[in-house]
Amino acid sequence: MNCIIIDDEEMARTIVEQLARNNPDVDILGSFSNAIEAIKYLNENEVELIFLDIHMPTFTGFDLIKTLKNPPKIILTTSDRNFAIEAFEYECIVDYYVKPFMQERFDKGIQKALSFSKNKNVENAKATLNDVNVLYINIDRRLIKIDIPTIKIVEAKGDYILLKTDNRNYTVHSTLKKIEDKLPKDTFLKVHRSYVINTNKIIDIEDNSVLIEKDVIPVSRSNRPELMRRLNLL
Amino acid sequence: MDVVPNLDYICQLSQGDKSFIHEILQVIKKELPLEIWTYNLHLAEEDFVMAAEDVHKLKHKISILGMEKGYHLAVDHEENLIKGNVSLKLDFDEILELMLCFIEKT
Fold this sequence. Notes:
heterodimer, A: alpha/beta, Rossmann fold, CATH 2.40.50.1020, 2 domains, 5-stranded parallel sheet, 5-stranded antiparallel sheet, elongated, B: mainly alpha, Four Helix Bundle (Hemerythrin (Met), subunit A), 5 helices, about 80% helix, about 0% strand, HPT_dom_sf (chain B), HPt domain-containing protein (chain B), DNA binding (chain A), phosphoprotein (chain A), LytTR_DNA-bd_dom (chain A)
């Protein structure tokens, strides 16, 4: 993990550097005696973790956190236990070392920071997955969230499309091509020049049509082979 | 931790790395007199809040040099100074003197 140290006391910085030397997961990129120098560095470099002293003259550790738009993970270092409650109001703070601390306590904090990264990655992956499963449509200047798996049929109607979902229907100013590009290719298929369907919603198929709930959707001759290919035929 | 300064914590921290012991002692030799000088200046100016800040910083060095009683006294002195109370000044001065002598000899 790429780290920096921010502490106005040189002795404190020297101690963290020593503890970091004995931990293979830590790579110290720099040490700073004041927050201003550190902010300049943070603006230009990728830092994953900051060892941050709270008690610094003019610009405290908390002041620094507030100035950072997207702060990296932070481990606070302080001689004062009284800041603990305030510390955990900040999502980026992963641990809190009370000076003086030893190697074992230091290593424990690094493990927390590492597991915090893994949890964040899982959360980000889940968020990305959720984003993939939704579509926002613009109706009367409002963006309405649609869960993609609930879409049954998309029908072209001139300059508009009719979007039929499990819950309700929406008329949107758009083209079939545009929405087709936004939908997952494995479940949505254009079966006719005016229709895109969710193949998971098909109830039955005849020669040149499919039934989705009560809607009979035409299937053009050119699109039929692809539709048949997708079906799990006995 | 104890009443008199010692290198127990620093030695533990070093894990046998003598260059680190030398480095940290050099840093303390450099920083400690300056911090004491600043603390005395703030006291002379009767800027007790700043003097409390100085004690806060000195407190860390007291703990690094293993002085448990001195550390607790420093905590009380810091709190007192914030209220403008200097009643522990002389006791605290003794701790500082002990530290300076110890660092000189080491």
